Amino acid sequence: MDYTIQLEKIQQAVGILQEKNIDAWLTFVRETEHNADPALPLICPVNVTWHTALLITKSGYKVAIAGRYEIVNFERMGCWDECIKYDQSIQPALLEVLDRLAPQQIAVNYSESDTAADGLSHGMYLTLQRYLAGKPYQIISAEGILNSLRGRKTPAEIARIRAAVALTDDIIGRITKYLKPGLSELEIANYVHGEYAKEGVIPSWDTAYCPTVTVGPDSPQGHVSPSAEYVTAPRNTVRIDQGVVLNDYISDIQRVWYLQPAGETSIPQPVQHAFDAVRGAIMAAWDVLKPGVQGAVVDDAARNFIVTAGYPEYQHAVGHHIGRTVHDGSTLLGPRWERYGQTPFGIVEAGNCFTLELGVHVPGYGLVSLEEDVLVTENGNEWLGKPQTEIIVVKV
Amino acid sequence: MDYTIQLEKIQQAVGILQEKNIDAWLTFVRETEHNADPALPLICPVNVTWHTALLITKSGYKVAIAGRYEIVNFERMGCWDECIKYDQSIQPALLEVLDRLAPQQIAVNYSESDTAADGLSHGMYLTLQRYLAGKPYQIISAEGILNSLRGRKTPAEIARIRAAVALTDDIIGRITKYLKPGLSELEIANYVHGEYAKEGVIPSWDTAYCPTVTVGPDSPQGHVSPSAEYVTAPRNTVRIDQGVVLNDYISDIQRVWYLQPAGETSIPQPVQHAFDAVRGAIMAAWDVLKPGVQGAVVDDAARNFIVTAGYPEYQHAVGHHIGRTVHDGSTLLGPRWERYGQTPFGIVEAGNCFTLELGVHVPGYGLVSLEEDVLVTENGNEWLGKPQTEIIVVKV
């Protein structure tokens, strides 16, 4: 078992606790196979069954308390100062450790805004309240800790994301050779799944709509399963939104193709105009994306650009974190909508990896939509793959 | 997309709401790709990104409220009386529906005891509290609903579990042919993963310790990753705990082998005695397992048997539900320990599928441990596969 990333992230967590001046961070989980806490894989590479408490303090002390049959997995990591096993209840060991270390605040994994910091179930919260009844500890949200811990990618994490993006770029090239008239969205999705299987990777998100394939002017837009109903024809656009999980890290990329009939020598003006507007909006976002900027400000730039170009606003955020998952935590490059909670007010940090994405629908042709993956650094942004700068033309 | 099971379960949910006299059941989720609610797959086959509310009432009325780009997935199911889409916030639509349907109680998915009924995160609970502030609805736990809904397997579900068990039985046969001296736990686990890949299935639980392979007298017991350190030798037992996910349903089976050296004509007495005690304890549990019995009573039977036979108590439950997941909800056939909350006090129902499992360590030889998968019916129990009635001998 490879613990490289978990050891990096645990060390990073200590620094973040010091920076934010929070005494202790507690990840409290059970049965993570079907009740996952998105924070757990950052600090522990396997699932747990019984109640498990992983405590990291500002002073760098690290304690794992786990069921008898699972403690070995923590002992093997070699980074926990104490690995404590229990049989009947975790409560005595947890209280003994907390009473000994006496943190003033304990940050736990809940958040209204940030799903990636909201791994503590309400039932587990009630259990913790019951365990700690009468104790002086102040329970606070770990959302700030997790936003930074998840968002600031380490070198090993960035290398893995680049590898996932590179593989996706390669598969995009294969799709270009495969496309022709008469293919349904479902056939195209099945082809992509076949390429994933050859590479031994799985889709970045739900197989039912990764890839999302949108063919021609009539297909519905969004997180929709590819259907057998919409079939490629000359003068259609084809838009594919996809990504792969490679070595636990993901890619998330949209590309657009145009099926050009014989005799047609240029891309129809409405399609080209839409592409230029979408690409321009992405570059507008890129230009303001840097450490210290609020997420919503990045979205504003793209949104103003696309509206000024004469298109409707996109009904989503222009960008989201990527990493272990396809929506990898808070600080959304998104509009200040209630639906997004506090995430658009988050601040971009160096080491963040974001998508930049939007699209417009072109009547009579179809969806024109792009999505690029970007790394933010102190010295400017880097594309994580090769951005799409022109429509991919398939001669048919 | 195949909705067979979700349509069966949604219909079953209405009956359970009537039986338990609860006005409405609300599943409230977002970003289920990494913050899964174990209840969601029972009623919706795809993940969602934005806040989504799935409301089912006692009168059989069903409403899905989802983000604009995801509502199509619910419309395609054909069973929701209303499919309502939103852009900026789910709150207005949710309040409009609740005010119109006016349920007295709304059951939501949280539970201290039952992880499979604890899919509502604490952050989402706070959001719901905020949305419903000042409203008269009584928020209650859906744990009773989910215990029955998840626990009472429909015919389509039972058929899928049987198929997963049958494939596992077949792979067990292949392992018998493969075993020989000189194989490390890790090599054996890799072989099993290879057979899974050939069949296009994945492990029932974490790949890191499914299968769990325990070789000889010195290997640690439990949910531990197979290691390169412990290598098969003559007169070892080999215990493998494994299962596969086939068509969304799982198996969970333990088998034990004995590597018999040339010239040895019978199984050593300590190993045979342990096997007979373990098998006897499983049959003692089987004999009391029936609808209406408390889970702990089934555990008592096996626990008393194994202790009376002169072995230490096992430090876990003798059985758990299986279904979509390997610990498929509450009513545990387990001891009345704080760690297990209220689950050992649950009542066995017809349609439940359980494991029956325990083991003992035999000094000098290794682990002797069995696990069978069982269906409870009104007319007696059925094995879901072929139970192990004698030690599998591998001549070496």
Q: Could you characterize the architecture of this molecule?
A:
The structure is a homodimer of 396-residue chains. Chain A is α/β, with parallel strands linked by helices. The first copy, chain A, folds into 2 domains: 148 residues, Creatinase/prolidase N-terminal domain (Creatine Amidinohydrolase, Chain A, domain 1, 3-Layer(aba) Sandwich), CATH 3.40.350.10; 241 residues, Creatine Amidinohydrolase, CATH 3.90.230. Chain A is 33% helix and 22% strand. The radius of gyration of chain A is 23 Å and the shape is elongated. The termini of chain A are far apart. The interface between A and B is large, with 66 and 66 residues.
Strand content of chain A: 15-25%
The end-to-end distance of chain A, rounded to whole angstroms, is 49 Å
CATH homologous superfamily label of the largest domain in chain A: Creatinase/methionine aminopeptidase superfamily
Helical residues, percent of chain A: 25-40%
Q: Overall mean pLDDT score of chain A?
A: 95
Reading off the top of the CATH hierarchy, the class of the largest domain in chain A is best stated as Alpha Beta
